[in-house]
């Protein structure tokens, strides 16, 4: 009996060690992929091109959710068929201030709901977002879905055929030093040894077809949007 118990304990310990090792290897591989973007001046130029491509896609489409769906699929960041889901972040509510009420053109008495989420594809968090919205402008079904599930906001209100007015788009990190286009590329950059957690920030207002605003969002896109190998240079 004692030998049997010891054997079980040993097997459990080995299994736990294997799980830890597997997690460490997976993390190491992901970190290695992202660090490839910093290896050479050429890969840094590619990183800037990729970021600006994502930036352009987000700015030219009304729904960040659907844009990230396509980005995740195109860059194989999750198993085939995966869609963006919203992980609710609770306990960090931010009441709408005067600026948000001005953006939504409502007075102090009108209800503004708040939602903080992490938009996830597979096991990768691609963005974190603050969203202030007007429940009165949505259907009862939309409000119920937003209140009771982890559906992404853009998917929940897709039937509104909404438009997006971008207020700002900011690169929170640049892979190249300021003035690189005139002064040339530095062979060995040391200013950014690793990618920061957030790379882009967008602020926008979502509007109904008649131009009525119903949502104000602040979106921050993470380093996981670059979690795929650096593009290969192909010969003609």
From TrEMBL:
Keywords of the record: Plasmid
InterPro entries linked to this entry: Chorismate_lyase_/UTRA_dom_sf (IPR028978)
Record-linked SUPFAM superfamilies: Chorismate lyase-like
Name of the molecule in the record: Rlt6162
């Amino acid at each position: 009996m004692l030998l049997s118990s010891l054997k079980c304990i040993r097997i459990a310990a080995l299994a736990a060690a294997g799980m830890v090792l597997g997690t460490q290897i997976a993390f190491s591989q992901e970190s290695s992929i992202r660090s490839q973007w910093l290896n050479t001046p050429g890969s840094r130029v590619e990183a800037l091109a990729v970021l600006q491509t994502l930036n352009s896609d987000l700015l030219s489409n009304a729904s960040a959710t659907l844009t990230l769906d396509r980005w995740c699929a195109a860059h194989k960041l999750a198993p085939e068929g995966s869609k963006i889901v919203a992980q609710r972040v609770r306990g960090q509510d931010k009441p709408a201030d005067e600026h948000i009420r001005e953006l939504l053109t409502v007075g102090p008495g009108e209800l503004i709901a708040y939602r903080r989420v992490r938009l996830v594809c597979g096991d990768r968090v691609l963005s974190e977002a603050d969203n202030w919205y007007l429940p009165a402008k949505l259907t009862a079904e939309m409000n119920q879905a937003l209140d009771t599930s982890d559906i992404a906001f853009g998917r929940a209100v897709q039937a509104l055929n909404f438009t997006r007015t971008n207020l700002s788009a900011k690169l929170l990190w640049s892979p190249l030093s300021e003035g690189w286009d005139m002064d040339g590329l530095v062979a060995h950059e040391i200013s950014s040894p690793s990618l920061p957690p957030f790379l882009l920030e967008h602020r926008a207002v979502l509007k109904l077809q008649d131009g009525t605003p119903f949502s104000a969002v602040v979106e921050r896109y993470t380093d996981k949007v670059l979690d795929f190998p650096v593009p290969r240079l192909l010969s003609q």
